[in-house]
Amino acid sequence: xxxxxxxxxxxxxxxxxxxxxxxxxxxxxxxxxxxxxxxxxxxxxxxxxxxxxxxxxxxxxxxxxxxxxxxxxxxxxxxxxxxxxxxxxxxxxxxxxxxxxxxxxxxxxxxxxxxxxxxxxxxxxxxxxxxxxxxxxxxxxxxxxxxxxxxxxxxxxxxxxxxxxxxxxxxxxxxxxxxxxxxxxxxxxxxxxxxxxxxxxxxxxxxxxxxxxxxxxxxxxxxxxxxxxxx
Length: 231
Ligand code: IPE
Ligand code: IPE
Ligand code: MG
Prior knowledge:
Blueprint: E1 6-10, H1 14-20, H2 25-46, E2 50-57, H3 65-89, E3 92-96, H4 104-117, E4 124-131, H5 133-149, H6 159-165, E5 176-179, E6 198-201, H7 211-223
Parallel strand pairs: 1-2, 1-5, 2-4, 3-4, 5-6
Helix pairs in contact: 1-2, 2-3, 2-7, 3-4
The structure holds 3-methylbut-3-enyl trihydrogen diphosphate (2 copies) and magnesium ion.
One 3-methylbut-3-enyl trihydrogen diphosphate binds near residues 11, 13, 16, 181 and 206.
């Protein structure tokens, strides 16, 4: 059965998971980090080459300051705890999105983790932080415009040239996009890259997602017939 090379997940439903238990939203986010650990391990076991996770969108700054602080705290915790495991297990960490505007210590932690895993040859774990697909495309357009201004012919702008300017450059083509919690929208995630991805919307709330759920998603992907416009 075909295994998707590159899977992206919109990890949604932490807040509703907590609400159903009359817990504060942070409790849902904490369980969400546990799900993230389980699912990255499962992805490796399934032979998925790249797993891209939507952790914080460029629109999530609209949330209350306290929740943003909690999410950044969890990210800090995750990076500190997981870096050694990633190094040991050969995972390559990539970040999508403009993470440089995060707190200085977080930026340092991220840069350190990316550098320490850069020469690994195992699966890629890409985490989207302060990521928005429209902003990603704006940055790509600006860089290409600068090249044209510097003398590059306009005809040199093709699909591959745009691909190279995106945060996902070098990752395998996106095969499968999963969103948990029953919402059926992309929320500004990987708009360009999802052109021919299979979309899968599941009711499970992210904190309840696990390796078995990922295996089910991969099996569902295997039953899809991809045509890419052909017959
Ligand atoms: C997803 O869970 C996590 C982030 C967006 C950081 P939510 O926090 O969006 O959970 P719901 O959608 O409110 O249930
Ligand atoms: C998308 O979830 C972003 C992440 C999972 C990080 P949201 O919960 O922010 O999306 P909307 O607001 O429901 O579209
Ligand atoms: Mg949500």
